Structure formats: structure tokens, C-alpha cells
Amino acid sequence: MQHWFQDHPLVSYLLILAFVIYIFNAVFRPGRLPILKEVLVYLMMAVGCYVLLVLQLLILPIIQCMSVAVFMMLLLRLRQLYDKRINASKDSKPS
What we know:
Elements: H1 2-7, H2 9-28, H3 35-57, H4 62-92
Helix pairs in contact: 2-3, 2-4
């Protein structure tokens, strides 16, 4: 898999960028920012992803590690939705 990512650097860059944007929005999002700050944040992420791409191409498993992190974040989100649904159904039942 690592060799495939090395052979396709554009796909690797886009995957890294997508993972970074998802992680930023899910974990570090400070709320709504003014549009110029928002653009600046995403531009800085795009530049930072280039550094991660270089590390990925130097045989470090950046994409694999980020995919595990995103998978764990999705599991957490699913668990939160499940707990919210269970608690809502318990609250609606009369005791």
C-alpha cells in the first residue's frame, strides 16, 4: 500500500488534505471565523499537508495513521449518536 501511495503523490496529497480538514473541523474548530481567517486557515493547512506528503513519500505511514485516527473519531461520533438516541427513548417513556 505504501508503494502505491508513493506512485500516486497527488492522490496521497488529497487524502492527507481531506484527513487534516476533517480532523480540524471535528476537533479543533473554534466556531465560525471571519471569511479571510477561514481562507487563511485552509491555505495554511494546504501548505502543512505538503510537509506531511514529503514525510509520506519518505516511507512514513502518515496516511495510514491519519486514517486510523479518522476511523476512531467516526466510531466516537457513532457512539455519541447511539447514546443520544437511547437516552431520548428512555426520557420519552413514562416511569
